[in-house]
Amino acid sequence: MFELSPEMKSTSLHQQQQLVQKQSRRKRVVSQNTSVATQSLATHELELQQQMQRQSQLSIRKVELCKELLSLYSRRNSSEQRQEDAVKAERFEEADATTTAISQVQERISQLEGIYADTDRSLWECKKRQDELSRKICELHPIVLREMDDLRQKREAERDQFEAELRQRRESEVGVLQGERDEIEKDRSDIALEQDFLGKNQSELKQRIDEETRIDQDELDDLKGKRKANRSEIEELTRRLEQLNQKDKEWALEIATVQQRIRITEEQFSEKSKEVMQDKQKLDHRISDLQKRSHHLDRQEAHLQKVVEEGEVVQGKLQSEIQAIVAQQENLETVRKMFGDELAIIHKLRAEEEGFREKEAGWSIRSSRWTQDLVKLENRIKKLTDKIAGDQRVVVELEEGVKGLEKRVNQTESLKVLAVQRRDFKQASHYSGELAKLRETIVQQREELERRTGEITSGSTQKDLAGLQREYDALKGNQKQEQLDMFKEIQTVTTETLAQLLVTCSKKPMSNGSSTTTTSADKAIVDSKEEGDSWNTAAGVLLKELRSEIESVLEVSRIRYGRETTVPIAAVDASTAAAVAKIAVVAEATPISTVGEEEFVGKEEQRAALERDIQAAVAEEDYATAAELQERGTLTVMSTPATIKAGIAMPPKNPNKYQRVRNINALYICGTDEYGTATETKALADGVTCQELCDKYHPIHKQCYEWMEIDFDKFGRTTTEEQTKIAQDIFMRLYERDLLVEDSMLQLYCSQCDRYLADRFVEGTCPKCNYDDARGDQCDQCGSLLNATDLVNPRCKLDGNRPVQKESKHLFLDLGKLQPECEAWYEKASAEGSWSNNGKVITQSWFKEGLKLRCITRDLKWGTPVPLPGWEGKVFYVWFDAPIGYPSITATYTKEWEKWWKNPEDVKLYQFMGKDNVPFHTVIFPSSLIGTGEKWTLLNTLSTTEYLQYETGKFSKSRGVGIFGNNVQETGVPPSVWRYYLLSNRPETNDSQYLWKDFIARNNNELLANLGNFVNRVIKFVNAKYDSHVPTLDTAAAPATESDEKLVREVNEKLKLYVEALDDVKIREGLRLAMEISALGNVYLQENKIDNTLFADHRARCDRVVITALNLIYLLSAILFPYMPSTSESIARQLNAPVRLLPESFTVDSILPGHVINKAEYLFKRIDEKQEDIWRAKYGGNGSEPAVDEKKKKKKPTKAAPAPVFKGEKPAEVVELEKKIEEQGAKVRELKTAKADAAAVQTEVSALLGLKKDLADLFAKLTV
Question: EC no. (predicted)?
Answer without folding.
Answer: 6.1.1.10
